[in-house]
Design a protein that fits this description.
The protein is mainly alpha-helical and 173 residues long. Helix 6 packs across helix 7. It is built from 7 helices and 2 strands; from the N terminus they run E-E-H-H-H-H-H-H-H. It has a two-stranded antiparallel ribbon with strand order 1-2. The radius of gyration is 20 Å and the shape is elongated. Strand 1 and strand 2 form a beta hairpin. The chain folds into 2 domains: 74 residues, Rna Polymerase Sigma Factor, Chain: A; 78 residues, Arc Repressor Mutant, subunit A, CATH 1.10.10.10.
């Protein structure tokens, strides 16, 4: 392929450097994720963020270190989201009473959750959907909705609690 150079404003990075960075990021994602996330998917997200942020980074910024930090943050966000989804299902399962062959929560899918979300207030619903379904970070949500990051966390927490109540009520009916 020759000596391909990617130029992002004042930064020039050779194809060999990009390949080396990708190998490093995928390996780090594989190591940190321990099979719970797709390392290639995380690496793609890291590179996308780097390409968007590179023009604004100081010239002395080490891309490898910057990408490692971003990877760690993305990984934590994804694992937190996975844990939240598992926690909602586990909480519902813990409150389910016996009867029937299959527990009620096995019927839950994204459609059921989205229908129950439609009953939440618009601020809670929008914040929860951005975080859960669009995989946005607290910072991105705060910027988009023009609210504080702490408010994002409070809204997500309240949406989870309300969703849990609604799903438990749904199963009891």
């Amino acid at each position: 392929m020759g000596n391909v150079v990617v130029r992002v404003e004042a930064r020039a990075v050779s194809r060999a450097t990009l390949d080396e960075l990708r190998t490093f990021i995928v390996g780090l994602a594989r190591n940190l994720g321990r099979g719970r996330v797709d390392p290639d998917d995380l690496a793609q997200d890291v590179f996308e963020r780097w390409l968007r942020a590179a023009p604004y980074l100081p010239p002395i910024t080490n891309p490898r270190a910057w990408m490692a930090v971003v990877l760690r943050h993305l990984l934590f966000d994804r694992l937190r989201r996975q844990r939240v989804c598992s926690a909602v299902i586990a909480a519902c399962a813990a409150t389910a009473e016996g009867g029937g062959d299959e527990p009620w929560w096995r019927e839950l899918d994204v459609g059921v959750v989205k229908r129950e979300l439609s009953h939440l207030s618009p601020p809670l619903r929008e914040t929860f959907e951005l975080f859960t379904f669009e995989a946005r970070s607290y910072q991105e949500i705060a910027r988009k909705l023009n609210i504080a990051e702490g408010t994002v966390g409070v809204r997500i927490s309240r949406a989870r609690a309300a969703l849990k109540r609604r799903l438990i009520e749904r199963c009891a009916a």
